[in-house]
Known about the structure:
Elements: E1 2-14, E2 18-19, E3 26-29, E4 31-38, E5 41-48, H1 52-68, H2 79-82, E6 95-97, E7 103-105, H3 109-115, H4 117-122, E8 124-126, E9 131-133, E10 137-139, E11 143-144, E12 154-163, H5 178-181, E13 182-200, H6 219-237, H7 245-248, E14 251-262, H8 277-292, E15 297-302, H9 308-314, E16 319-322, H10 326-340
Amino acid sequence: MFVRFSGRLLINVASLNTQGASGTNYIEITKVPVVLEKDGTLLVEEVPAISGNMMKHYHFVHLVELLKESRYNKDKLSKDDLKHVAYRFREKIDKEKNIKGDEAKLSDEEDILKKFATADIHGYLAPKTQNRRESLIKFSFVIPCEETVREAVDISAVTQNRVVIDDKGNIEGGGREEGKAMMIFKRQYASALYGFASAFDAYYVGRPLSNPTTPAIGNNERKERAKLSILAYINLLGGIFGANTSRGLPALEVRELIAVVSDKPVPMAKHGFYSDYVEETIRIMNDFAETFNIKPKIFVYKKNGIDMEDCKKKYQKVEIEKCDSYIDLINRVASEVENGIK
């Protein structure tokens, strides 16, 4: 099974990715250049962004939490997984034990898949043995949508302070030392409608990429890993990701989400950055399905609705289902993937 996601998140007052904070009391959010087309001319604008690395890390975090309570894979975790540390594996070792005590040879991809569920889904690197596996989960940068960049993206700096008190409740220090006791700092926050895209090649769950013809683990383990990998998107897209959430949890809403599920490889869904991404994703999948004689299933959630009958008449090579919420959509995708793992 192959899954493609794209969508839009309305994120207000967020500081989810930062940069340039070392040695300064001014903390900037991450910004990247994007190319926009206006009146036939291509223009470059700098916009706030959330990195794919940030999104991938928090998908890993939510997947670990689900695996801890799972039936078949709860022991297929490392001590680092439990601490939400996502590196694989340490530099000078050629063997590693999971929390159950089962040892894996880090020169053997099949053995690693048997012992570590997260290494299966999110990939790994074993430096000493020069053995690696590419992640089955992929994320784009999350960036403001093209039609909103000029009018509806705002970045502002908020002044904050940190106070140190002594055992009597007084602010410590005085004079020149007062700056240490009551430190003023500024942090940037951004508000925008953001687009993103993601992919999950569930077919390869439990299969060594070095020899994908035969799975290394049982079908129940594979189904569970694949299903939980999809369900991990629920908390991720619901806003549990990013830096500064302890004191700057954003006001976030999933406005739109589209998912494509196929038992054969399919192209990426068009990134949510583009204003026409929903219909263009359906069009791309429809044309691809006609070319290769396959029948992908497409799930769509839009807060403001979508004319499903019109889409179904125009694009008859794909199955299109309307969902009531983004969680409903993810649950349906998870069921499709679980049932499709063979």
